[in-house]
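Bug report (template v2)

What were you trying to do?
Predict the complex of my protein with zinc ion.

What happened?
Run completed; filing so the output is reviewed.

Input:
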Amino acid sequence: MTTAATRAAELRRQLERANHRYYVLDDPELPDAEYDRLFAELQKLEAEHPELKTPDSPTQRVGGAPSLAFAPVRHRQPMLSLRKADDEAALQDFDRRVREVLLKGSVDYIAEPKLDGLAVSLIYQNGVFVQGATRGDGETGEDITANLRTIRSLPLRIQGEAPPLIEVRGEVYLPLAGFRKMVADAEAKGEKPPVNPRNAAAGSLRQLESVITAKRPLAFYAYAVGVSEGWAAPLQHRDVLRQLRDWGFPVSELIEPVTGADGCQAYFERMGAKRASLPFDIDGVVFKLDDLAGREELGTVSREPRWAVAYKFAAEEAVTVLENVEFQIGRTGAVTPVARLKPVFVGGANVSNATLHNMDEVQRKDVRVGDTVVVRRAGDVIPEVKEVVLALRPADARIVSLPAACPVCGGQIAREEGEAIARCTNGLSCHAQLHGALIHFVSRKAIDIDGLGEKLLALVIDERGVATPADIYLKLNAENLAALERMGEKSAQNLVKAIDASRHTTFGRFLFALGIPVVGETTARDLAQHFGTLEALIAAAESDAKHAEARHVMQLEREAEEQRSGKKIRRSDAERAPAYPQLQAVPDVGETVAASIAHFLAEPRNRAVIDTLVAPVEAGGAGIHWPAPKAAADGVLTGKTFVITGTLPGISREDASALIEANGGKVSGSVSAKTDFLLAGEAAGSKLAKAEKLGVPVLDLDGLRALIAQN
Ligand SMILES: [Zn+2]
């Protein structure tokens, strides 16, 4: 051997020994600076003498060139899966069957924690790690050798005397500290954090660039030996584990021999109690027959060995402290209270947020900031706060109240009477609601811009600064649309034409397009017909808002007086009258709808967007306009209210509505005593029944035409 070769071998030995002390035994002996110095020396030597580079060199742990794909690896011995026990009875069944086959009164098992990671197979030839693979389907896995080499606690060379061939099996996992760091790093970069350590470990192992894997704090535990050549296997599993330790593999300190089903159950309970304080996640425990000859006797049934069982923890609830409640604004402006929790490990994931659904839930569960709460999580479901541990409530626990202003845009938050959901009223310029609001705005029954789909809207929000519906008209043009991804010049021009065409609309469509909560297409059309102009509608809404406020004060005063006197006071006529008299005069508009309209139009930011939408193009507006209202008295159906139901022969409901409206009639959405006629087609349902019950005359399409002709 040359001097360089001797020195390289010496350095490799020293560095691997240091790695083992540090990562496996958790007992470092070499100062970091000294390690770095030796490492640098080895790297330099290998660079000068490439022939000295070996696959087991510690320099290989930093990762290498990216690979294009993972080659399939056929396992020399299938990697079986484990049968599962859900409860103590199933565990006793398992033990009973084992004893029956082995004809023994009592059996020893090796109990080990079940780490929530990825099973891998490692092949060592003459003591050198040459190939590592994932479990895959149990028969064939993927070659992830380069990535596995980067895991510091995984030996690249077996210590001491090694057989010519040995397959070591174990689990690659991400300790919780490493998982938390990955979450924090992802959040700092604005990336989506991994959901749980298992996913994070799997993602890290399946990196095509091993330099990325090398940066992830993955760890490894060995738990079994697969195929071997030239190795005299011991008689008991506990001796296999001892051998693995002697070879330099990390083996869990939590592994213990236990006796019988009772011993297994006691171990399970001990681990359950310990689980929360472990530096890694375990999702259960595994019991394996200690006697290896007995394993042969028991054999394997449908790819599950009969000598082992996994006993999983059922608990998917954990107790933690509610540190704060924040409010998120959904796509429709709905305000969702979100619990910010002291991070807790539950259901296989690190949970620091849980939904509280809505304010009714918050009140029903009486959740307060500072409370100790039970968090529940099942599978991939969003974690939720299940209940409060009232006995642990601190004296200064703070009651949760709905914020007055939207945390995203500062708009007013309103909650209509009887509604569980509170909403940001600033629907037209609240960024949280923008995408949803624009999808609605351009939809066919609203302002109707063909070719402006969900994905394109997301693009123009992000890349063209579209922040309100008015910006569609003000900020988009053929050039900047054509420059967007997957937009040709032709489609950009077509879209500009569609945007232009949408400027000419109807008042009803415009009102519907605004996306006022609980104002549907029919209500929008009724409002348009009733008020005729935007100015009239706004004036009515403003006057009604004052009226409702005055009525509310009246109600509060009466209630205060009732409390003072201890007597019930009759509500005055003024208090009994509609809160929003002008809006509620419109068919089908009740107090909830009226309040929603008044709130929406009272929001200055919504008004600013509306003003820009209807301002002429010359004045810097979007130039949306509609025909002036026809005088209401010019039709034969003036003063008559219609409701349409069922499928009409040869005519759409919209056209039927237009026919009625062209003749001065009104079309309303639901049947009431105020309805004059029900226009019923095929398959008319509950509306027909209701009309018959109320004695409302029912017409078919011919009947309607006759009515128009006859008048
Ligand atoms: Zn908002």
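What did the reviewer find?
The mean pLDDT is 87. Residues 534-565 form the longest helix (32 residues).
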